[in-house]
Amino acid sequence: MTVRSVLRMGEPLLLEKAQAITQFDSPELHALIEDMQDTMQAMNGAGIAAPQIGVSLQVVMFGVASNPRYPTAEQVPDTVLINPTLNFIGDEVEDDWEGCLSVPGMRGVVPRFVRLHYTGFDQYGNVIDRLVSGFHARVVQHECDHLDGILYPMRITDLSQFGFIDVLFPGQDIQDD
Ligand code: NI
């Protein structure tokens, strides 16, 4: 088990475009995914992208069973998604709160497309092809943004809805990252 340190906003690597994976089912890829899994679990994240542990490759993972960070969120299946392509369905957008392991202690309201068709591969090279909406679509957009060097604060349109968790939600037991 290797919990890697998570890069925080301000680190130049988080602003880079990640490179595509060219070889699936390799020891290096499996080791990267294991480290991402361990790190995400240790920090109670809903998702993590490889650049967040300092690896500029197009690998993200996410999954929400019941997560203390998102107590009311819909479930999202545990997924490893590599070399993703996103296509938004329609133009409906909704606002909701987001946090990020690279922006600890903060939350902001981010507009995201409601409906999303995404494709990519798992770590063995199997095709992933899904039509999703709501929280699942939000999580995928957030994680895949990391592969384009975009952090959620860069998507906030109303900065009056961006702040520290303990100030925004006093008395609520929301995890501090
Ligand atoms: Ni994030």
Specify the CATH homologous superfamily: Peptide deformylase
Fraction of residues in helices? 10-25%
Low-confidence stretches: none
Element order, helices and strands? Answer: HEEEEEEEHEH
Shape: globular
Tell me the structural class: alpha+beta
- Helix count? 3
User: What is the CATH topology descriptor?
Assistant: Peptide Deformylase
Quick recap:
With 177 residues, this protein is α+β, with helices and mostly antiparallel strands.
What can you tell me about this protein's structure?
The structure is a single chain. By secondary structure, the protein is an alpha+beta fold. The protein has one domain: Alpha-Beta Complex (Peptide Deformylase). Helix content is 19%, strand content 30%. It is built from three helices and eight strands; from the N terminus they run αβββββββαβα. The strands form two sheets. The chain has a five-stranded antiparallel β-sheet, sandwiched between helices. A hairpin with a 7-residue loop joins strand 4 and strand 5. The model has no long low-confidence stretch (mean pLDDT 94). The structure holds nickel (II) ion. Nickel (II) ion is lined by residues 100-102, 142, 146.
List the keywords.
alpha+beta; Peptide Deformylase; binds nickel (II) ion; 3 helices; 30% strand; 177 residues; five-stranded antiparallel beta sheet
